[in-house]
Amino acid sequence: MRGAAPTPSLSGVLYVSVLAIATSGLVYELCAGALATYLLGNSVTQFSLVIGAYLSAMGVGSYLSRYVERDLLARFVEIELAVALVGGMSAPLLFALFAWSPAFRALLYGLVGLVGIGVGLELPLLIRILERESALKDLVARVMFLDYIGALIASVLFPAVLVPRLGLLRTTLAFGLINALVGLASTAVFGADTPARTRLRLRAMGIAAVCLLAGAFAGARAWEHRIEADLFADPVVLRAVSPYQHLAVTSREGDTRLFIDGQLQFSTVDEHRYHEALVHPAMASAAATGSRCARSCAGPRSRRWCSSTSTRR
After folding, report:
1. Which residues 6+ apart lie within 8 Å of 292 measured at CB?
2. pTM, entire model
3. pLDDT at 304
4. Domain spans of the chain, in order of start
5. Whole-number Å distance between alpha carbons of 292 and 193
């Protein structure tokens, strides 16, 4: 059974869902790639594998949607809430597992796969739910348009706003919360053909998901600091996030170290070994140049020329 045709209010909620799904799905993917790069290094490899795994999982989800035949709206809400929880908690889980377990890579691709399957399931279900209200060609055009616009929104917001202001952990939690709110809003406009018990169950699930993700978002800063303390051998005295990098400074017994994206940049104990190698050739060259200039400026006329040249410089 497909169920009754969607009401105008439900149709509006579902079209908003398309935008939310597309935006949040790409944000989860970008966060997974960025976190894998931060923890494992080699950004080209990490982003390539994460994007490939995510898109392949979306294809699997789209194929599996053919086996969902009854109560499409209820199944959509259940999948939306599942994506909200898995995607929203993905960055905190990955961060924690890297610090406390050797199974990081398995969880990384497992979570990326689950989110991709969920997103791949949602869009075909939405099209099937909405297909009774308009011609298929118009429906597909609207859904795909919103899907691509959502991807554009995510790709612009992620580097410019989300990572600098929220960080990776709170970004996934925030979009998980958005997904959960969309799922909960969908239950508010169920038609009369949906059993009361089903509506009550899905609303309870939606409220629980919203509360869980909101609580996790509120405590994400403390959680991140606690896990990050286990990633470094020395106490972290300063941490910052720029639009491009995650910075951490550790210090113990006079040894201060700078880490960028988890990679050691320098230590004050042996910093002179590589920075002096950069400075000495330039300074030696400057000294030689100065000696030649002094010899060439021996005469009065040359002395005036050198003086005027130095002034211009």
Report:
1. none
2. 0.75
3. 53
4. 8-228, 233-267, 273-312
5. 94
